[in-house]
Amino acid sequence: MLTATSASHSSDTNDSGERKFHRVTISVQGRFMRADHSEHDCIVDSMSPFDAVISCGIRPEEGERIVAYVDYIGRIEGKVTATGIRSFTISLNATDRKRDKLSAQLTWLANKHELGLPEDRRHERVSPSNPVSEIRLDDGRRYPCRIIDLSVSGAAVEIDVRPAFGTMVVLGNMRGRVVRHFQEGIAMEFMTLQPEDAIDQLS
Prior knowledge:
Elements: E1 6-12, E2 20-33, E3 39-47, E4 51-55, E5 65-70, E6 74-83, E7 87-92, H1 96-115, E8 132-137, E9 142-150, E10 154-158, E11 168-171, E12 174-181, E13 185-190, H2 196-202
Antiparallel strand pairs: 1-2, 2-3, 2-5, 3-4, 4-7, 5-6, 6-7, 8-9, 8-11, 9-10, 10-13, 11-12, 12-13
């Protein structure tokens, strides 16, 4: 359930079912590409599984296709439906499965924002007694890895590949996104805080 600050209005979508939805205030950084392939930094002010309001110093054209990479969310795309002085709105082009994922990501972001959840570095990290595991990508690719340490909110993993920042990955049964690369592998942030008991059982 999206419990954090929501935008003041709801919108109708033209998708089947004409469902109503609410945007959630997330205020996360991103970068988007216009139809002319120029790239621009931006902030996604609010978002739902169906649209997003983006702040930026430039104003794209209504109907223009936008591809954006957003922190915590990953890649989104859609067409501009409205423009303002320093912001614009895009209607997201996504499958039902993608919208379900967006809903889960937005729920996590909303709760993180409202509850002031601490970052990974502020949680106690442990080294698992059996560090051998596997990283799985959304496209089905699997890579063996070794867990260096982990906490309730993230993990450092030794792995030969380097998925791009923001890539959604699954470590065992823990889903998260890549937030950092280092010499031995990657650091990932879980999409939801893991139960402390589950972490303790791994140590």
